[in-house]
Amino acid sequence: MTGAERLSLDTAAARALATTTKTVPQTLEVTPRWLLRVLPWVDVEAGVYRVNRRLTYPVGGGRVSFSNAGSRVRVVPPSLAELPPLGGLADDPVLDTLAGRFEQREYERGDPIVRAGQPAGELLIIAHGKAIKLQTGAYGDRVVAGSLAGGDHAGSGPPAEGAVWEHTLEAGTPCTVLALPWTELHALAERSPALREALDRHRALLARPRNRWGEAAIVTAAGHRGEPALPTTFADYDPGPREYVMSVSQTVLRLHTRVTDLYNDPMDQKEQQVKLTVEAIRESQERELLNNRDFGLLHQADPRQRVQTRTGPPTPDDLDELLCRRKKSRFFLAHPRAIAAFHRECSARGIYPDSVELHGSRLTAWRGVPVLPCDKIPVSRTGTSSILVLRTGEDDQGVVGLRPAELPGQVEPGVSVTFTGIDPRAVASYLVSAYYSAAVLVPDALGVLEGVELNSHVKE
Question: Do residues 165 and 155 touch, judged by C-beta distance below 8 A?
């Protein structure tokens, strides 16, 4: 007997008569999708969700945009309307003239831009880089009071006579700053009725009674004795409440009828195709809930709820700053690389973050608030990202997800699969749709830490 002779049936031949055990189709695209899992969802009956609020007196605070030609930076004129005194100004020639009056200044890291106590005679806009706001603490040491980044401004209101800078502004990185003396703006206002009206409107707005959140004040009396005349008041409403309409992620799934007729055992081919397609639709939904320029959370955050990192990487101090600006924070949302960077900063300080169990997973937490990973948060080409913190739910005036109450052909909440026919080639088509949006009920429900460095620093 030679070595080539077999004594029994070969396993490769035996497989021709065997039934294999198969898995359902697998995919790499599925992520934990924590935002979809923990966001409270409101079933919208009419397809539109209106957020009614108390009347708020806006005083600007948005961010200015820039264009550049080589090293020369110029303000994009319409974006000047984001500055408090110019809010609502739509006179393009005036805005264009103002944009040309700014003086460009360059600062190296550590250079003072303005010093506390100096006359506050200019409007300053940070075009590039980050500036640190410093003040003298109660014991004479330097205290970081905040920071400004690209598009932020300082000295944003016409100063009273003799007004001085309250903080020292120092370049935290190399900075490009655009400066406009208030005397220039007032001189232009003498020749422009539209600009003069905008400045008068801003002064009148500042004179109206408001609470510390900028809402029209509800006047009350307390601690009085006897029978004084009590104040009269009412709660005014915003005359133009925001309405959210459903956005949609869709695709047309195509499946040949021969496949479903002949190859439907032991697994339903249509069911598996729909399952994989819905997973892709859900991934698109979470991406849009974060990044859509109309309703995405990264774009809905109020400018006053946007915080810059103190040193670049995400530190415990930065996350504390996010938490102290709101009550009942439910969770942080961060790119996995941002969470890794936070762990590095904690390790460098000898700090051990908390951990919590949520939906069967062990997660990092800070001050008891879970830090949920989400790879849909963008990472810039320079290796920076953002960290969000949310208060959620209608009862807590937080962030809520929106979806239709019921859909024809619904297979999951907010997701429908509709048969749209069979073409002459016997290919069946199914429209797969997910309808959704997200609403921020009050501005402090959502905060964003910006400019989060994800890469490790090299020690020299």
Answer: yes
Count other Cβ atoms within 10 Å, centred on residue 349.
11
Kindly report, residue by residue over 146-185, the tens digit of the pLDDT: 888 888 888 766 666 668 888 899 998 888 999 988 888 8
Orientation of helix 316-324 relative to helix 336-349, angle to 10°: 110
Query: Which three-class secondary structure string do you get for 22-43?
Result: CCCCCCCCCCCCHHHHHCCEEE
Contact assessment for residue 289 and residue 438, using Cβ atoms and an 8 Å cutoff: yes
Measured distance CA(62)–CA(60) in Å, rounded: 6
What is the H or E stretch that residue 270 is in?
Answer: helix 269-291
Sequence-ordered list of residues with C-beta below 8 angstroms from that of 412, at least 6 positions apart, any chain: 278
Tell the residue number behind the tokens 């797969």, with chain if given: 432
Which amino acid, one-letter code, is at 25?
A: P
Taking the C-alpha atoms of residue 168 and residue 135, their distance in angstroms, rounded to an integer, is 6
- What sign results for the dihedral spanned by CA atoms 341, 347, 348, 354? positive
DSSP 229: P
Q: How far apart are CA 204 and CA 216, in angstroms?
A: 13
Three-state secondary structure call for residue 342? helix
Query: Count of residues for the chain?
Result: 460
Predicted TM-score (pTM) of the model is: 0.81
For tokens 């002064």, the residue is 203
Q: With residue 187 as reference, give the H or E element that holds it.
A: helix 182-191
How many angstroms separate the CA atoms of 136 and 188, rounded? Answer: 36
Read off the pLDDT of residues 339-370 as tens digits, 9 standing for 90 and up. Answer: 999 999 999 999 999 999 999 999 999 999 99
Give me the helices (H) in 302-450, please. Answer: 316-324, 336-349
Can you tell me the distance from the alpha carbon of 332 to that of 321, in angstroms, rounded to the nearest whole number? 13
